[in-house]
Amino acid sequence: MSGENPSRSSSGEALAEPRIETTPSPSRSSSGEALAEPRIETTPSSSRSSSGEALAEPRIETLLDDADRAFRDVLDATPDGAWFAPGRLNLVGEHTDYNGGFVLPLALERGAVACVRRRDDDLVRVHSTDLGSTVQVRLGDVGPDAGLDWAAYVAGVGWAAVQRGLPVPGIDLTVSSNVPAGAGLSSSAALSCVTARAWADLAGWDLPDVEIAALGRDAENHVAGAPTGVMDQLASVCGRKGHALEIDTRSVEITWLPFDPASAGLALLVIDSRTPHALVDGAYAERRESCRRAAAALGVEELRDVPVDGLEQRLAGLPDLLRRRARHVVTDSDRVEQAAALLTSGADPRELGPLLDASHASMRDDFEITVPTVDTIQRAAVAAGAYGARMTGGGFGGCVIALVDAAAVDRVTAAVTDAAARAGHPTPVAFVAEPGDGARRLR
Ligand code: GLA
């Protein structure tokens, strides 16, 4: 897997690392398993599916047990502690974060649990219980193009810390996650941020949360080669229970806004289309490049600098494709500001609905990042009574979020499942999300 990068230690001694071993996972796989029946998975607080089926996804305690057991069985060692970092769900503001615009994510209660031990040497040993894969590499061999596969999200954090001149000890780490990969819920940020939080605590780096997030992002951008913006890692590190985060991605200023759908009799239903995307694919980078070209053609530093007032006139001189790309970014960033104003004023969260629908239409028609599976689900959710629905995350698959009456969760889930079946799409999996806390030490 890592074949083209024969690694050497700084002394020139030949090493077998980076070494990636993949074995059948001793535990469950967190995604990809075949689902015969529609399944509703809820967070523990809202507990059960219509059929009374218990939570199918492992709880944090189970993830901790898995990571802890693997530490002893696979790494043959005892961890110094355990950490958690959540995946994120973006309410609105998609592909605005690399244009200096606004985003409105929240941290999920799902995430990655890592057991970690500080080492006395420069070795990084990591094991994923979900993938059944173990990777071992010397810190000096970590960097762009190191061929580390998934372990780039872990070892890359050490590389990012070295770039900042921080003292970086080696670590042993095992990780177990219940964020489905490629679903637009930032399983990768959960991994890079749980690593950054743990490494900082063990090495004694005294960094503010935004810097912890930046370590995770640098690992993703430079070592894993995923050209993400700033949103995912900030949400994973800085999330707060009961709150969404309005982030000005230019100043990286965060405003925590109360968002508690349950107290308004609502549920934020997350419907995984089970059409995974991959951010390292070219389409994400292509959208970034289109935005850069549109900004250059408009004579602004970033699309953030284009006011929404009189937008059509401002964009009129652009070629059609760039005009639509820019229109999506400017209007979606504006929808974040509208949504934030609603939450700030304490308005009924149902009023967010039309903004979600408009965001989806903009992603579908102007930014062209939706796919038939998610369009079918979005339409079916709205037809079944959702106040609003949109795809969330980077796009080209992944999840749809729908704001629904708490009592309508089963009905909307059944409707989207039925619509997906009729269209010949994979059976979706749904769960109810509640805003949770950001990255933290568990023990
Ligand atoms: C991915 C990236 C984020 C952001 C979203 C789209 O999740 O990691 O930085 O660009 O796509 O909003």
Automatic annotation (TrEMBL):
Record-annotated GHMP kinase N-terminal domain positions: 161-239
EC number: 2.7.1.6
Keywords: ATP-binding, Carbohydrate metabolism, Galactose metabolism, Kinase, Nucleotide-binding, Transferase
Domain GHMP kinase C-terminal: 348-418
Any Pfam family the entry gives: GHMP_kinases_C
Organism superkingdom: Bacteria
Annotated InterPro entries: Galactokinase, GalKase_N, GHMP_kinase_C_dom, GHMP_kinase_C_sf, GHMP_kinase_N_dom, GHMP_knse_ATP-bd_CS, Mevalonate/galactokinase, Ribosomal_Su5_D2-typ_SF
Ranges of Polar residues composition bias in the record: 1-12, 22-32
Chain positions covered by the region annotation Disordered: 1-55
Start and end residues of each Galactokinase N-terminal domain: 70-118
Family, similarity comment: Belongs to the GHMP kinase family. GalK subfamily.
Database matches in PANTHER family: GALACTOKINASE-RELATED (PTHR10457:SF7), MEVALONATE KINASE/GALACTOKINASE (PTHR10457)
Protein name: Galactokinase
UniProt gene name: galK
